[in-house]
Amino acid sequence: MAAKSDGAPVSLRNAIPPECPSRSDPRPPQRRPTEQRYTLSDCCWTLCALLVFFADGASDLWLAADYYLRKYYPQFVLTLVFVIVPSVVVQVLSFRWFAYDFSETVESGTAAAAVVAASGAAEQDISTKDSGERGAGRSAAAGVLPGPGTGGGARGCCRVFVWLFQALIHIFQLAQVWRYVHALYLGVQSRWHGDPERRHYYWRMMFESADISMLRLLESFLKSAPQLVLQLTIMIRANQVLPLQGLSASASLISLAWMISSYQKVLRDSRDDKLPMTYNAVIVQILWHLFTIGARTLAFALFASVFQLYFGIFIVAHWCIMTFWIIQGETDFCMSKWEEIIYNMMVGIVYIFCWFSVREGRTCCRMLIYSLSVFVENVALTTFWYLYRSTGERQSTSEFYAVAMVCVVASSYALGTFFMFVYYCLLHPDGAVSGWGYIVEKEVPVEALASPASSLPPDLVSSPPRTLQRTKGSDREPGHGIDGDVFKVRPPRGAQTPVPHLTPRTEGPVIRIDLPRKKYPAWDAHFIDRRLRKTILVLESAAPVPPRIQYRCLGTPKEVMEYETTV
């Protein structure tokens, strides 16, 4: 299958592109670690995520009702606006995704061709061009995926019921709850079933988890972040803390830290070229973001309690600078240019509050620049509040109170920085990635794997999407033509990194995508392009052997330039 970001199908035929030659010297089969499976920890993590979602939303609504009963109408309106508007935006986006996923009118011929290919020869290549030219005949021959007008009255009634059910769920602002429950169901089903059903359920669970992570991350920084700053500002100006205000602010802060860490975990779990993030690492990352975002939002609230107008100017200026910085980095997250611009604007909002990696490679320098900028801003905002706190309305803070607030900001940011160092020094997923018939050293850059000079096969993604456990102890097997030590000493700067001889698995169907594989920390195209998802799911459920996903390699600078121009 080939698919371009602008939607135009392009076939790669049945030959590997000349810029991605494969090696002819096969390697001995390597020891593969146990496949990633849905565990009890994953189930508990999803349930905790549901609890965080309910706590955040319910506390905000409860606080808004309390403001209304106390006749604090400005606070009531602002609190309710920061609840309703972001929720509506997320529901619209979620329903749009559902409408596309549930529709059978989009590329049914492609899916039918995939099923035929999966049940045919040992290895087949799936192409959207083939499906466009011969999709109708193959669909009739396969007898699968009929159009919306076939299937009888019972099937039509079921479709209408599903549409009504999903419409009610999104009207009542429960799309996230439904997706969490659905992901939980799919994970349990993948646990109970054997192959090939297990693979299919695991595919769908990973897709659903990716959707939830994107939706919740968007909702958190559109709702929880401004809600947290709002409630802290109200508490500082009033010199008192209502129990519901503290509950709402705490729930918003936990939701922000939780969703950033959860997003990073799901993203790593979805990519086979990255090691998974352990739950210990996730917990430390939650603490990292909890304290840094807490210090950041408290500094915002202190400054906004005195300088409302200047605070708005500062936020807009910071967002513009961060957005331009992200755009200058030439991110590659989305399938089209306008979606990429919107994504960069959303990441600019995230950068107002915390660090968020959007580019592959060593992030030490970029993180250092961002951390120093945030530190200077926090110091400046807190200092301005300390010096001019008596000029605002209803300000009667004592010196002890003012010094205590400054110390809270400083200590919270210091604790967050400490947990950040703990994560990167002790718990960051690192090491070699091995399995699926060949070994990929993590020190080998993606450009080397995609270049013709390295004489490697094109980027392959094995099915289902899963990650590899760190190889250690008795799992290492020296001999068989490979070294027993997985973790290599990094060569000196400037030295040529030896490229391992890789041999991809050759059996089973191949889905060829006419796009270069996106670099981490971007999602793979088959996670964000819903057209690819539909074909992969059909092929995965019908193929006796897990299909391979093969991305295109851009070998020459001219081809890279042509690709970037067409996108």
UniProtKB/TrEMBL annotation:
Name used for this protein in its record = XK-related protein
Q: How does it sit in the membrane?
A: Multi-pass membrane protein
Q: Does the keyword Transmembrane helix apply?
A: yes
A GO BP term here is:
phosphatidylserine exposure on apoptotic cell surface
Membrane-crossing ranges are: 75-95, 242-261, 281-302, 309-329, 341-358, 367-388, 400-426
What InterPro entries has UniProt attached to this entry? Answer: XK-rel, XK-related_scramblase
Q: Does the keyword Transmembrane helix apply?
A: yes
Tell me its family: Belongs to the XK family.
Q: Write the gene name.
A: XKR7
Which UniProt keywords are given for this protein, alphabetically ordered?
Answer: Cell membrane, Membrane, Transmembrane, Transmembrane helix
